[in-house]
Amino acid sequence: MSTTTKPLDFLWFIPSSGDGAYLGTDHLSRPADPAYFKEIAVAADRLGYSGVLLPTGVACEESFTLAAYLAAFTERLKFLVAIRPGTASPAYYARLASTLDRVSAGRLLLNIVVGGGPQELAGDGIFLPHDERYDHADEFFQVFNSLIETGHGHVDGKYIQAHNARLVLPPVQEPRPPLYFGGSSEAAIDFSAGLVDKYLTWGETPDQVGEKIARVRKAAAAKGKQVSFGIRLHFIVRETDDEAWEAADRLISHLSDETIAAAQEGFAKNSDSVGQSRMLALHQGRRDKLEVSPNLWAGIGLVRSGAGTALVGSAKTVAARLKEYQDLGIDTVIASGYPHLEEAYRVSELLFPEIGLGKPVSHVRAAFGEPQVFGGGGHGGNVRLASAS
């Protein structure tokens, strides 16, 4: 168990399939719009997030292309984009990754995504059963890593044949951009050991996360590798605990039982993911079982696949819950909240000071040094802070 006080590496999320203020309704929803994604990325860059996750899937914008677009409008922000073995050759992915790292000046992070629903995978031409997909991915990364680290790759495997492949232009980062990965099955953990730099888990209870970290550490150590850990969570942070729980209730206030049932049926039918099964087991589709651990709320998972839990509470409360995960070994958080633009501000302004992260980046001075308070934005500007008497 770790007791480090080093601040968490905190990333945000680009909702590239669309966004909204309420789950299970089109009321106050926002379509998938590149201009809106730009607003979120620019805000995250200024607010002090270290990077953003760009999701992958049939309903999402393609993550490499979207990252290249957003990189042009940001300065420090890193982009966690998906490599999905089987959707393109390892040599092609190596060229994509190297170019994106070069045009972003070394701001690329790579998210290995092997799983997914069998129906979507079949649409991408992937017909391998669950565990065999990881055998395929292992051969894929033999070629990919060799290419992006040395410029040369050769594998004549069961699934991948790449003969004397070359990559001429190297990435900025040496030996390559970091590899992130999440998967809860034994096959996934065995695949990740010795390969990935950061293992990601969805927001399960601290006990479950601790057990998973121990399994991954043991598997990595058996192959002579050390790995760091991150967690994917939603956040509902307000000035008080009561306000935060009211916001959580409001988020699902338009969500009908019929919509929940349809979503749960779809998850069960269309996914062979062990991680998804673990998410569903937290709440079992029931509204009365949503606080699955202190301040860990599973309401989002009623209709959202993948990451389905949120930390809910005041900044102090949420910071305390995060410290519990941090003491288990978590050093990275990939966060989100609905809607993502407004919640990026709330999390930065309320939570960051409690967890030791800096203030928003600004290139301009606010005033000539005289303390001021916000005066409503009128013509006279702000108001001088009254001196203590």
TrEMBL record:
GO terms for molecular function: alkanesulfonate monooxygenase activity. Residues 10-331 form the Luciferase-like domain. Gene3D superfamilies: Luciferase-like domain. It comes from the Bacteria. It is an enzyme of class 1 (oxidoreductase). Keywords: Flavoprotein, FMN, Monooxygenase, Oxidoreductase. Its EC number is 1.14.14.5. InterPro entries: Alkanesulphonate_mOase_FMN-dep (IPR019911), Luciferase-like_dom (IPR011251), Luciferase-like_sf (IPR036661), SsuD_RutA_monooxygenase (IPR050172). PANTHER family: ALKANESULFONATE MONOOXYGENASE (PTHR42847), ALKANESULFONATE MONOOXYGENASE-RELATED (PTHR42847:SF4). Belongs to the SsuD family. This is alkanesulfonate monooxygenase.
